[in-house]
Amino acid sequence: MNDHLMDIVRNPTRPVRIGSISIGAEFPIAVQSMTATRTQDIDATVRQIDDLVNAGADVVRVAIDSQKDAEALMEIRRQVKANLSVDLQENYRLAEVIAPHVDKIRYNPGHLYHHEREKPWQEKVGYLVRIAADNDCAIRIGVNCGSVDPDAKSRFDESDSISPMLESAWEHCRLLDDLGFYRYCVSLKDSDPRKVIEVNRRFAEERPDVALHLGVTEAGMPPDGIIKTRIAFEQLISRGIGDTIRVSLTVPNNRKHEEITAGRTILDDIASGRVRSVVDYGLKTLNIISCPSCSRVENEAFVELAEQVREMTRYAEQYRITIAVMGCRVNGPGETDDADLGLWCGPTHVNLKRGPESLGAWPYDQILTKLRSELDALIAKQQPVASAPGAPPVQ
Fold it and tell me: Who has the most CB within 10 Å: 153, 172, 173, 347?
């Protein structure tokens, strides 16, 4: 419901224009996807781009790895109205061929080593920056856990996969800044959502000014791929980290638009406090979160209960307390551990927790009384941020 939108304070990231849209702190979080068709199959690729745009894609990325791919993308550009990002894969020299026809260039620092190996990567990046500047293109520095810059990787222990990604990203940012090119964003992707959270959080602490593209690579098939991605996005976006997102799903080509739908749903749910993991919105006052309803919910009364909790707890709005309401036994037991008070719903009873401690289970028509008692006990130990209104009776 849009009646309870969270006021998420975004990181102060610089604006980056990509065709007809811009990303950064001043703009809504953009949603994008990538084509899965063969680029040289022009008709199929045009159809997929149109499908993604119709689903609400702000940017669509297309990969090229040869002159023929680039020529195909030129024709595709003539047939679509999308904001196009080109993925240079391993052939960075194709930038000068395709840059006049796209809005953003994505390169992978690790892939720069695959061509002209005797040439320093700094020289190659300088070339890409000149091409982008001359052709009105933005740049994405795309760091991926599976193809990290080998030089950065050699400086750290093999068990540390995050530090090489960070060092590579920071080095490339410094070079682009030194070259006077600021129209860029960065992505740091892994298939493990926990690593995605950590690497992006650490990057943003060092460079809060740089726009971030969020994604969990190789997330898999829905619904699991959506859930993995959702948890990473919840933890980052709730902290103000992230300016554009992509949900990477394993789906047939005719269902590729589901990536856009999933992305927009996740953003709406985070803004409304409907999340699968306990998130920190940076609030100094009461934080009520509830998971988005799905097929795992065993009693539809969960939805009504979430609203009742929100209404009943209004008297505690001036206290810094997090209450999580989760709809099923799959996510509920673990995902409520980080909340001050947690509810997870079964078929006939609702389980109540104080942090990781289980307090018992009560029927749906009794749980609010029990929750109220625990909430009052927490309030008694705190000072309000400001004077709170009187407590209404439980209905």
Answer: 172
* Nearest of 361, 231, 228, 230 to residue 299 by alpha carbon: 361
SS3 letters for 330-344?
A: CCHHHHCCCCCEEEE
Q: How many angstroms separate the CA atoms of 238 and 196, rounded?
A: 14
CA 269 to chain centre: 12
Could you read off the pLDDT of 104-145 as tens digits, one per residue?
Answer: 999 999 999 888 889 999 999 999 999 999 999 999 999 998
Instruction: Name residue 59's beta-bridge partners.
Output: 32
Q: Which helix (H) or strand (E) holds 74?
A: helix 67-79
Percentages helix, strand, coil for the chain (3-state, rounded to 5) are 40, 20, 40
Residue 178 CA to residue 162 CA, distance in Å, equals: 24
DSSP tag of 246: -
Tell me the DSSP string of 188-223: EEBSSHHHHHHHHHHHHHH-TTSEEEE-BTT--STT
Residue-range domains of the chain with CATH: 2-272 (3.20.20.20), 287-379 (3.30.413.10)
Q: What is the pLDDT of residues 331-353, one digit of tens each?
A: 788 878 889 999 999 999 999 99
* 3 state DSSP class of 291: coil
Residues listed for the chain: 395
pLDDT value at 4 more than 80: no
Decide: 157 and 123 in contact? Cβ < 8 Å: no
Nearest to 207 by CA among 171, 232, 235, 231: 171
